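Lab notebook, bench 4. Continuing the backlog of folding jobs that were queued last week. Each job is logged with the same field layout so the records can be merged later without manual cleanup. Today's entry covers DUF4133 domain-containing protein, a 709-residue chain. Filled in by technician R.K.

JOB TYPE: sequence-to-structure
TARGET: DUF4133 domain-containing protein
LENGTH: 709
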Amino acid sequence: MSNGHATTGRQWDVGAWSNPVTGVLVLYIVGIILYVAGVPWALVILIGLLAGAALTWSVHQAGFRRLGVAYTAACAAVATAWSSYASTVLTFDVFAPEATGVHLLTLAGACLPLAIVWVVLLVGQSRTYQAKYVASQSVERRRSATDAAVRAAGIKGWAMTAEGANADRLAAEFEIAPGGTTFRQALTLLEPLEIALRAPFRGAVRLEQPKGGHVGQVRLTCSRRSILADVLPMPPVPTGPRSILDRLAVGRFEDGERAAEVYAYQTTSSIGQRDAGKSGLQNVMIDNYASCLDCLIWTVDFKEGSVARHWLEPFAKGHIPTPVFDWVGFTAADVLAMVAELDRIASTRARGRRGDKIKPSPDLPAIRLMIDEVADLLADSGMDPLKRKAVELLIKVVRKHRSEGLDVDVFSQRATMSFLGPHARDLLSQTTHKNILRVDSPTEVFNTLSIANSQLGGVDPSEFTEPGSLMTVRPGSRKAARRTYYLPTEDIPARAAHYAAFRPSLEPTAAQGASRAYHERWTNPRMTAFLTAIRDGQAFALDTDTDTDTDETVAGTAPATAPAAAAPAVSGVEPTSHLRRLRAVLHDQFGTEAGEARYDLARGKVALRVMTNHIRATGADAAPTRDLLAALAAADTGFEGLAPRDLAALLAPYEVEPVQLGRAWEGNPRGYRLADTAAGLDREPATDDPARHDAATDDAPEPVLERSR
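JOB STATUS: finished
OUTPUT FIELD FOLLOWS
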């Protein structure tokens, strides 16, 4: 290949149209014609140079290998030199055969080196064709084997359209012919299909219907290794803040592909037996939410704070000014106080909302209420008036307040309706993101979450043997088993300390008139005792006599929060100064040099998000740099005075670069493409610190699918 151009199938064809044997005769005849026509030699040279340069450049741009490009240039030079000479001298004279022979031998001698290079090109051409033939034969054999396995499993009427394989898995795509085995029928034939494909372990074969395809398209995946038994270490903390609108990963699919979802505007439920990995999944979800600059976390821990304890340790010991959680509760009364507060906040936000949904931001953060062991709330809610009121309000929040950025995550070991109580179906039916860990049987999944076996894609959650193995059911998500990341509890305090700089505050308009429960959430006797127990390393005994006051409000005052960074101002139509405040916090926490480096990475991520949203709002596929700089300056004062070169430096760690936008834009300005900025949002920044490079966060390579002819 030449200069990085893609190799094409014509890279050897330069030898086909420039055969030096026929070239000698053609040039000889052309020279005679030029002499007879009386064309000036200077004009011949000019035409030869222009034509030769154009031809050589075309070959270079077409991706010919360097030897072919050099050969083309040499042919053009010889042709130009001979033509200019022949235009002034009669090279063919029937009355002077000796002179004619000398001229012909001279031309042949000049072309001899070219003939040698031409032979080299032909040899390479033959080797290329041979390699392509061998590769095609291996692909055909593999296709034949996969096709035969599908037929041997009893599946009829499936035509393979593409297939690819890598070290981790084989993937093939099929079209179902009319009258052929349907997708649901094929799901009942997974075991025969595993036998026919010689799968290395049970559950290695998966059938999926690709998103966006028609009902007759099926994708078959056969994993060569499963990561369900592996320990997947939690990726390092992100250098800069993320957004709840980003795709957040809790682990990987069993074939190694990164499993990431958008959790904004989604209610999740997670069910599973004891020791199935539910607490580990909850910690990974907390870590994801804590890394977001536009998400507040409220949590209710019915297990006397066993999950919240590790996340609050650096705050309780005075190491950080702001806790990961905005509110922590322990009892049904706390749930009632929280959902009542969410209902009030939703009303406040609905009055000022523009459009169908609010867009979470540091000034208007999403709020996620996480309830561990929700069975303690639901089981006897029909007989307990306080629990019944809490559940009714909780269901109202789940049903009606997603558009205000209020979402709920519930976790339970008890997966059957008889344990969860009469309100369980109302609550669980509203969840859009269902995590299923190990259960007794698929029937239990259907009875609890109304999920049929066909929705599980052949995955049987009752056969999960390793904690942290789960199946996530959500529209558009892969129907394949996953393994959650492993986050050791001893690592949680350090991660919580890192996220302190990212924690937002409740917007002032919603904070006005907050209930006394919210006002005193960090100073009430129970929370004081809990923080003291964490600081002193003692066990915490829950005192139910100090339950939360759920009704009384403190109007006209901001809530008394835990010590925190400066609260964000109401943005209105003016740009905020959030980035400048973040810079001060990072400088204070990490020092001037390290803090500035982290600040630049955070600015780059925020800039990508603002740029992506701006380009999408214009409906175009790109935007000039000047327009994007104006949008950035309007979004945050931390971008004021930013020059194009400074913006390029901010985006460089995310592998996003400016490009010429082309003639479609007036003046062909430099700018940024939507595809590049959106891709940059999903990347972790490239830094000089090797510890920040996490190979585990990169998607496993997909098999390259080769289309059947």
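OBSERVATION: Residues 97-152 form the longest helix (56 residues).
SIGNED: R.K.
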